[in-house]
Amino acid sequence: MVTFYKERDRVGLETREKTSVCKPDIIVFDQPEQIDQYAADRVINQIQKKPNSVLTLPTGSTPEGMYKKLVDAYRQRKVSFKDATVINLDEYWPLDPNHPASYSTYMKKNFIDLVDIPLEKWHIPNSRAPDRNQEAARFERLFEEAGGVDLAVLGIGPGTTCHIGFNERGSAVNSRVRYVSLDPQTAMENSKKFPNPEDIPAGTITQGVANILEAEKIILLAKGVIKAKGVHLALEGPIGSDAPASFLRYHPNTTFVLDADAASKLKSS
Ligand code: PGA
Fold first, then answer.
1. How far away, in angstroms, is 157 Cα from ligand 1 center?
2. Tens digit of pLDDT for each residue in 60-105?
3. Ligand 1 center to residue 167 CA distance, Å?
4. Ligand 1 centroid distance, CA of 70 (Å)
C-alpha cells in the first residue's frame, strides 16, 4: 500500500496514514439554484447539529446563491452562526482588504455582515500583511487552535486548472497554507471581477491541499460548462498535482454537487 499523505489527527494531532482511494458522491441537479439550496442545507444541518462547528467557506460566483439562502435562513431564525467559526479558503495578496474585488469584501457583503457570526470567529488571510510567509504561518496556526474543520465548502477552478482553494496545478497533496502564484487561466477568469483587470494580484495566500483534506466533510460546488473539464479531471483523470481537485479522491466524505453543464464531460453521468 502507498501512503498518499499524512493527516494530523483532528483532536490529538497525531499523524495517521491515509492509504486508500475513495469514490466521492456525485449529485447532479438540473438547475443551478438547486445547488445553492443543497449547499445551504448542508451548512444549516451542520450548524444545527453542532452550533460551534468550524466551517471552511469559499468565495467566487458559484457560492453566491448559497450565501443568499444562508442569510435568508438566518433572518427566518432557522439558524444562528453565533457559536460557529469560519476559516476562509483563500485571499489575494497583496491587496487592500477593502478593495471591491478582495475576498474580505466579498465575505462581508455576502455573509459576515448579514448574519450573527462574531467578527473574531471569522478568519481570512490578511491581504495587506507585510510578509506573506509570516501571514501564511499565522493562518496555518488557526487550524490547530480551532481543533479541525467540520465541513469545507469548495469551488473548483476554471478550465483545466482544477484548483481547489488556490492550489493551482503543481500543488502537492501534503501542501499547507502558503503563497501561490495564480495560474494564467485563473488570472484571466478572475481578473474580470476587478474594476481594472490589470490590478489583479499575481498570487494568493491559500489553504493547502492537506488543510482541505483534513476537514471531516467536504462538498465541492460546480456550475457551468467552464467547470466541466476540471470536474472530469478531478473525478476521472489520474490523481495528482496536475489536477489538484483529484486529491479529493483520497477523502472519505466528499460530495461533488454539480449542474448538468458542469457534469457534461463525465463519462459516468
Ligand atoms: P467561481 O470560482 O465560483 O467564481 O467560478 C471558483 C474557484 O475558482 O474556485
1. 5
2. 999 999 999 999 999 999 999 999 999 999 999 999 999 999 999 9
3. 12
4. 19
Query: 204 in ligand 1 pocket by Cβ < 6 Å?
Result: no
Among protein residues, the one with the nearest Cα to ligand 1's atom 8 is: 157
CA 12 to chain centre: 24
Helix axes 32-49, 64-75, angle to 10 degrees: 50
Q: Using DSSP, state whether 179 is helix, strand or coil.
A: strand
Query: Which contacts qualify for 181-187: CB closer than 8 Å, 24 or more apart?
Result: 183/157, 185/157, 185/158, 185/159, 185/160, 185/161, 186/157, 186/158, 186/161
Residue pLDDT, tens place only, 158-206: 999 999 999 999 999 999 999 999 999 999 999 999 999 999 999 999 9
32 lines ligand 1 (CB under 6 A): no
Q: Write the pLDDT tens digit of every residue in 45-63.
A: 999 999 999 999 999 999 9
